[in-house]
Amino acid sequence: MQTLMRFWRSVQYRKGLIILAVLAASALGAAYYIVSTRYYESKAELLILQTGSKVLDGAPEGAAMKDLMPTYERIMQGDIVLADAAQKLPVKYRTDFRGVAPADWPGVLKKMVTVRSARQTNVLELTCRSRDPKAAAAILYAVLSASIDFLNKNHQGTSQEILQILSKEKVELEQKLATREAELIELRGRSLTFVSNGTDNATNVAVARVVRLNEEFMKAKEETLRATAQLAALEQAISRGEDVLQFAMASLDVVGKQFMMGELGLDSQEGMAISRMTEQLLQEQAKMRTALESYGPNHPKVMELRDAIQAKEQWMASRRQVTIDRLKQLRMEELTPRLLQMARQRVQHSQQHEASVSAQFDIERQNALSLNGELAKLEILQMDTKRLRAFYDLVLERIRGIDLGKDKGIRTAVVGEPKVNPRPVHPKLSLTVAVSLMAGISLGLALVYLADLLDDRFRSPEETSLQLGAPVLSFIPSLPTYDGNGLDSVHAFVAPHESSTEAFRTLRTAIQFAGDDIRRLVITSTEPGDGKTTVSTNLAVAYAQSGRRTIIIDCDMRRPGLSKTMKLRGSYGLSTILRNDDSIENSLRNNVVVSDLAGLDIIPAGPRPANPLELLSSTRFSELLAYVESQYDQVLIDAPPILAVSDAGVLGRMVDGVVLVVRPDKNQRRSVIRAAETLRMWGNNLLGLALNNMSSDRAGGYGYGYGYGYGYGHTDTDGDHDDLLDDHASSHSSYSSRTAA
């Protein structure tokens, strides 16, 4: 969360980068929108209805249209339909085919035209995109026309083939019937008296055989016709890849079905085994119910029956699945060729039987003619005419049945006409604007992140405040160096009326307004050399000059810069107070230094202890703070840098607020952010920032360098002071020791 907050502050400060990125992305988006090719879209809807279902009509029996809609989608986007549509498309609307070979036109149309079925409907939705709005509508018209032609041809092809066969048979029958009727009329003209005198009562064995063979020949002829039609329908169904199992069950008789099932390894023995197993299962389930009533569910007999029932159920389920899998395999591998072979054999046998009966009929007819003369010839002609007329009527009935059934199967209707849409659908202005804004914002955020990653410095006071989430309390300029000792080296004491001193008075006022009654204050920094001692000493002078009794405590017992500045390094000070057992009041009398500035007292760091953090965390230090707060109006604590040691975090929990000294020309941004977060993590009240070493040319922005260490033996870079390893016997002759009462 803290990382996100820091990044959000960076975004707020560097919002100019985001604005620039958005403008650049918007310019690119506008250029794309201007130069992009316009595409226009046209839509149409095709309704497909299933009005009947017959084998001869080519529609699978019981097929649901919702299951067939994906098939029609594929058909309308197939190469055959699209090639036909491309040929039907007028030349003036072939703008999208420029520079493309005719053989590749279907591929172009496949990219331009999309077909999908509306959910839970029989409606196909067609969409076409083209660079010409009129061409888009014309292409849809061509695709609809080609698709309807293909569907009609596909679903009516079998009926047309059978109709052609029957029509040819009808013509031949008409010719034969006309010949026989002419012969009959001629014979009746010659034998009118003989015929009327008793032809109906004449009996002749040869004539009776001819009559019987004539009836058998008509049945054979009808069977041949039926077998031929079924073979044609079967071949058409196979060519379309339809399921032929239902066709086999509908076209074969009982004996044929049993024979085929036996040939395929699915004879009745399998069914008998399943029936026996089902009967045994029912008996054991009945025994199970009786046993449950008598023994209970955990009885061994009940458990034995339960296991037996479970085993039989598993066997039946496995056999059922084996049968289903076998049927699926047989449909592809054996059923289709066997069914086709049987249909062809049926046609062949029917034709052979018809030829055999016809040959025998001709022989018997010749015999009857030779035996009965004119009477037999007349009867035969009458029988031939009757037979031919009956067969002719049968052919006519079949033809009428096919004509009446031609509307069954698939019907199509265009329910949504393609329309010319003058408004382009690509590129879309709204989409272009949205994508440009998103791309610009994303690019801007990436630039902000990259800038934060590469440029680790504060560029302005505003960015510093925004990144740290704390106000800038004062801008402290670069101060001159003084050669004096003690307060004579403090700028606010030496030059109280210069404009640069006003920065500390501003800091004093900002602290007063930062919270109610802030009397105990910690001054710390990110790194050594940031000027925290300079700020704390000058701020203490500013408080004293305002008439407030002020005490400043040097709590940096590792590297006591304040004590060194005031020339107070010696054997007395804060460490002495915290380590002795005397009362706080008595300890202060011997360790507080009264400065030359009225109202300002100092507690130096004292001898360097081995455990400064433990001393600052002790109860005695808390008692010391409570006592000096009762004696002084303002308590200032010069604390070590927060990133070097944790002393400042501990001290900040005991006071009213913390001021963080920052040198933008020196501190690394991430280090300062980490320092502020560390103070807040310790529960310190970060009042604000004191920006040190500011020059007039850095009013709007500033840079800095980096590098520090902190520990014993390190050269002091805090302020403009010399080596921190001077001996502890420095004199303090310019100060007089007195009590802080």
Task: Characterize the structure shown.
It is a single chain. The chain is α/β, with parallel strands linked by helices and 741 residues long. Among the domains are: 3-36 and 427-454, no CATH class; 461-700, Rossmann fold, CATH 3.40.50.300. The chain has helices at residues 2-13, 15-35, 65-76, 79-88, 105-112, 133-190, 192-196, 205-239, 245-251, 254-263, 268-294, 300-404, 429-454, 461-468, 491-494, 502-514, 532-545, 561-565, 574-579, 584-591, 612-616, 619-631, 647-652, 669-681, and strands at 40-50, 113-117, 123-130, 410-416, 472-477, 520-525, 550-554, 593-594, 600-603, 634-638, 657-662, 686-694, 736-737. Strands 5-12-11-6-10-7-9-8-13 form a nine-stranded mixed β-sheet, with helices on both faces. Strands 2-3-1-4 form a four-stranded antiparallel β-sheet. A hairpin with a 5-residue loop joins β8 (593-594) and β9 (600-603). The chain is elongated. It starts with a helix and ends with a strand.
Reconstruct the topology from this structure.
Elements: H1 2-13, H2 15-35, E1 40-50, H3 65-76, H4 79-88, H5 105-112, E2 113-117, E3 123-130, H6 133-190, H7 192-196, H8 205-239, H9 245-251, H10 254-263, H11 268-294, H12 300-404, E4 410-416, H13 429-454, H14 461-468, E5 472-477, H15 491-494, H16 502-514, E6 520-525, H17 532-545, E7 550-554, H18 561-565, H19 574-579, H20 584-591, E8 593-594, E9 600-603, H21 612-616, H22 619-631, E10 634-638, H23 647-652, E11 657-662, H24 669-681, E12 686-694, E13 736-737
Parallel strand pairs: 5-12, 6-10, 6-11, 7-9, 7-10, 11-12
Antiparallel strand pairs: 1-3, 1-4, 2-3, 8-9, 8-13
